[in-house]
Design goal:
6 helices; mainly alpha; 0% strand; 144 residues
Length: 144
């Protein structure tokens, strides 16, 4: 399932980038290769690469949210069956920490996708800042 998801979600935009002719400067705006930045350098019709990531983010993260919600319902059902209030509090604390880490990742990905899709008139610094927040913030916050 994991390999199928990676193939369906990640491979199509990357392959389509390799087919495009590039006629603009080949200098990226960021210190790392970001799909949205590479798309802007293409001279061909990039409609697929503009629409696919937005649909992908919406469907993938909606499905992820449903699966996470279902798993936490099962976890909470099990935790409430534990006799000790101290054990319940410890398990709930762990669940809240995990949900916070997951939300940090998803919110930055969704924010970056929508900034690049709909923020064409936003200052370039907003795009750069969002990309670095997406790239650096989740790993820094995860240990906390």
């Amino acid at each position: 399932g994991v390999l199928m998801r990676v193939f369906v979600t990640i491979i199509p935009p990357i392959l389509s980038l390799s087919w495009f002719p590039y006629c603009r400067s080949r200098v990226l705006s960021y210190a790392f290769c970001l799909h949205q930045d590479v798309m802007k350098l293409a001279c061909a019709d990039i409609t697929f690469n503009c629409v696919y990531p937005v649909i992908l983010v919406a469907l993938t993260y909606f499905l992820d949210a449903l699966i996470i919600l279902f798993s936490y319902i099962l976890i909470l059902k099990t935790v409430m069956g534990i006799a000790s209030a101290e054990e319940q509090a410890k398990a709930l604390n762990t669940c809240v920490c995990h949900i916070s880490c997951v939300l940090v990742f998803y919110i930055t990905v969704i924010g970056l996708t929508f900034i690049h899709r709909f923020g064409r008139h936003a200052p370039h610094m907003v795009h750069i800042t969002m990309s670095y927040v997406h790239f650096l913030f989740p790993p820094f916050v995860n240990p906390v």
